[in-house]
Amino acid sequence: MLENTLVAVFVLIYGLIIGSFLNVCIYRIPIGKSVAKGRSYCPHCDSLIPWYLNIPLFSYLCLRGRCGNCQAPISPIYPLVEALNGILYLLAWYTYGLSVEGLFAAILLSLLVVVAFIDMKHKIIPNSLVIMIFVLGVLHAVYQSVYLGVDWYLGIIGLVAASVPLLLIMLIYPQGMGGGDVKLMAAAGVFLGPKILLALFIGALCGGFFSFFLLACRKGTMKSEIPFGPFLSFGIFTAVIFGEALLSLYLSTFF
Ligand SMILES: [Zn+2]
Questions:
Q1: Ligand 1: distance of its center to the CA of 142 in Å?
Q2: Which of 72, 76, 140, 187 is 20 to 30 A from 164 (CA-CA)?
Q3: From ligand 1's centre to the CA of 13, what distance in Å?
């Protein structure tokens, strides 16, 4: 019990620290800046942020959401991303334990956080992130086939299962979807195998409801471009964390 609590605290803190780095990625990748070089600085007054004010979540709360130097408000997105990544790591640990599979899940979820927040802000899914998810997917498929005896071709099924239907939709109705969404589902499909269809189903369902909600509130038009990446990312997250549970629930209900 105590041991589990200690592991949970460790996993959460680790998730918050990585979440802090994800903020750097979300801010710098779309503007083509290196994520490895350069310290964090306030975008308002350009002052470097000292290490003791760079502690995830706590610094934001201590400074009440303002820069320690110029008092400019800091976007609540930063602590939100940190907290979200902490919670995702806890979920990955809860589902897979301290295992290689859990590590794979945690890395994928972090990449999805970056994809979702960049897509929300810039309406693009950078190719560099798609390539990272693809490489992670290949490593995951190799790991599963070598160590867990999972059929190697499931990754290839996953590669095309969701991406090809999305590609067809994109060719018929180009306004509906971007190439980035198709590439994201191809790359994540290698990781997930056939479970990518569950991800597509959940993502399309949530995206559909959200669009309908916007239309109903007359805040959007049929033409307003809603980024699909965050919904697909949520679908992939659901398949990674709850995929097995949902599939067995489905099978026990209908068969
Ligand atoms: Zn400042």
A1: 46
A2: 140
A3: 26
Q: What is the distance in A from the centroid of ligand 1 to the CA of 49?
A: 9
Ligand 1 center to 25 CA (angstroms): 20
69 CA distance to ligand 1 centroid (A)? 5
For the chain (255 residues), the mean pLDDT of every run of 10, in chain order, is 92 96 94 86 85 85 89 92 98 96 98 97 95 98 94 94 93 82 97 96 94 80 77 98 89 84
Q: Are 155 and 141 in contact (CB under 8 A)?
A: yes
| CA-closest candidate to residue 59, choices 45, 46, 78 | 78
* Long-range contacts (CB closer than 8 Å, 24 or more residues apart) made by 143-151: 143/100, 143/104, 147/100, 150/193
CA of 24 to the centre of ligand 1 (A): 16
Q: How far is the CA of 125 from the centre of ligand 1 (A)?
A: 29
Q: From the CA of 60, how far away is ligand 1's center (Å)?
A: 13
Q: Which residue has the tokens 């990446």?
A: 229
Q: Determine the Cα–Cα distance for residues 113 and 10; give it in Å rounded to an integer.
A: 20
Contact criterion met (CB below 8 Å) for 187 and 137 = yes
Reading the block at residue 171, the tokens are 């060719």
DSSP alpha helix (H) spans, the chain? 2-28, 58-62, 77-96, 100-122, 127-147, 154-161, 163-172, 179-192, 196-216, 229-254
